[in-house]
User: What shape does this take?
Amino acid sequence: MENTVRRQSLTGWGRTSASSCDVLRLSTSSFTAPSELSSIESLLNGSARGVTLRGLGRAYGDPAQNGGGLVLEMADDLRDVSLDADTGCVRVGAGVSLDDLISFLVPKGFFVPVTPGTRFVTVGGAVASDIHGKNHHIDGSFGSHVEKMTMLLADGSVVDVSDRSDPDLFWATIGGMGLTGAILDVTLRLLRIETSWCTVNTRRCENLSSLIQAMSKDDDQYKYSVAWTDLLATGSSMGRSILWRGDHASRDEIDSSVSDPLSYQTKNLGSVPPLIPSPGLVNRWSTAVFNELWFRTAPKSRTGEIKTIPSFFHPLDAVAHWNRLYGPHGFVQYQFVLPFGAEEILHEIVAEISRSRVASPLVVLKRFGSGNKGMLSFPTRGWTLTVDIPARVEGLPRLLAQLDEMVLQAGGRHYLAKDAHMTPESFARGYPRLDEWKAVKNRVDPKGMWTSDLARRLDLVQ
Amino acid sequence: MENALGEYQNIVLLGGRSEIGTAIAQRVATSFTQKIVLAGRNLSADDVESFRSGLSQRDLSSIDVSTRDFDAIDFQNHHNFMDDLGLDSIDLVIIAFGQLGDHDELRKDPRRAADLVSVNMTGTISVGLAVASAMEKQGHGQIIFLSSVAAVRTRRSNFIYGASKAGMDAFAQGLGDALVGTGVGVTIVRPGFVRTAMTRGMDPAPFATDSAHVAERVAEGLRRGRRVIWAPGILQYVFTILRNLPTPIWRRLPIN
Assistant: This one.
């Protein structure tokens, strides 16, 4: 292993709050050889500002950077994947991307149990953020499908961790933002699929109420469900939406002339150039045009459309570096969950954002099913809304502070993989099991070696 | 830490009694802010109290305000000063200390002129380097240098002060360039004539303003990521002209 550490300015996907870190890129397999382990340890001990684990840097805020400290960038390839087709389980290096994993699995008739809106996350990051996808209301989040993990702990030991062997550490690590130890590999329970296609039903909803009604009524008949909402529309069309729901297509649902029902290809539509001047291209006017077109071109109601996996699950991945559209000051992705029954608050929040006229072309509403035992895992039963906002819009601190309060008062919480602005107090209010998590953290890492800018901001590491 | 919205958790004000510095610190603080350290000579509980009352007007009374002894010309201790702050991260440092002096007296007394330059320029350079080095170690941070339009073209009525500001302003520009890519940002604030206790009794220059307006401009400039902030904004254009004015004409101007 080459220990070439380079000083590098890092941000999350939102491109905010840059900090300069010592970055070392490596493969998780290098940890398993004892000699390499000790060289890593010596590297760790030398670092006064601790160590952060980073995958593909797709968390929006600051969890995968460590100003002035060490960042281990985990990058594995498909050599670090072994599939057991009989049990339907795969053992995969934590630095393997879902992009690689999906392209490996689909032709073999398997799919990841949960995929977020992008393929460009690592398996380790998926566990650490306990990511969710369009199937949360049916299948729960990523961590619920983890059989076991191999972890490198702060004392240098490499251990197998499962719900049976050490439930505390297991559930502190799922959603634990990489602060309990380095996940080296993950054994995942997979989903079997017959084809690489999806059947999708699309319908337009004229406002937020009709969307909530539609989702509440029959979401559970679909494995996948998600809605896009227009927050610039006002009056009676406030919250007008497009609702997509679907499932994996069975063999008899697709054209029988298709020779290989499991063929899998991704599309690349291009890339956003690096130098988009301030304040970026996303503003009230461009968003209004985009939203109008997006809404109008969607069918009022269409059933049984056949789509590919990338176009149904990862439409934005077709445009590389789309985050640059927001200009040099970046953007925040504000995501929260409100329990069922708090629909009125959801309406108020949507009205508040709509009133503030902040431009947000990407607003997503989704129904969550039950959460898992992850102590800092985000999803809980209820509605989750995701809103992209340019970071330096005037008055944004006030608006978000107000929304935070509404969310927390209603018993909701915010998603650490997206968060880039919260205070220790507002975070703690949303996560009643934080003390339990801290106790585990203290047990496995009493000196607070695993840390991050996020951990410092939210006071997670002593 | 600084968050994505440009809010700061820990703020240090060097020149804890500076009226403009105080206004900036109070204006930039938000509900995200946890600690503000006022640093200066012989700061008292009254100074903290009056600072707090400014915060409570903005509903920010939960911020922890404390004081530290700091002497701008105690160069040897500037590095220790930063280390001794004991903050997990120093997110924003406002360097606002400085003297104006009585220009006529300064001209008669080179010793006092040298002292003023020691505070305004040498002290700023010394502590500026200490702050920059502490921030480079933590990989992030923002430094605000309180300069002056006098740094851009010095008037004959206060050229000693102007020279000291020109020196610190040039230093801050170079430091900003040197820190590119380190995660540390530098912002230079160039106010015109500001009505404060320091300028009481003086004839205000054109485009005179107050410290609240300067603070407002700083907050706005930080949000937009400006490297140089003028207050009021029009002085950017006025001084671009003045700076390029031929000397014979400059000497005849009544404002000189």
About this structure: The two ends of chain A are 32 Å apart (CA to CA).
